[in-house]
Amino acid sequence: MPRRLAIALPAALLLTVALSQMTLARTAYLSPWKGGGFGMFASVDGLPFRWVRLYVSAPARSEELAIPASLEDQAHRVVTWPHRRALEGLARAVIARERRNQRPVAAVRVEIWRADVSRMLDVSEKLVREITFHDDEVDPARDR
Length: 144
Description:
This protein has helices spanning 2-27, 72-80, 84-100; strands spanning 50-58, 61-65, 107-117, 123-134. The chain is an alpha+beta fold. The protein folds into two domains: 1-39; 44-144, no CATH class. The longest helix has 26 residues, at 2-27.
């Protein structure tokens, strides 16, 4: 019995990881190149083909922001798996940064985009996920 278990356990574990990764890639926007990477050779939806766009708005301001160096790691994680909590975390970080720099901010929109390749090999941009986070949703004690 222990020998059979020793043979079956690695296969079962690999199958579980593969199914979890494929499910998250299809339902939760996880990049097929992450979480086990079982779809990486069948997709161009890797990290070089995904990007974040940030928009800040306030009564006297509406503009797109470049990703600041201080938020690049967080943006990279959000692009990899853009679930709601990660998007909100990035929006909170942008609001906190804008406040520290004494710039007005009423809302931040975070968009995740990816390159989409058609069957005819035409490349276009496709919106993966977006969220608009308002300044009044931020808890100042938590978001410093």
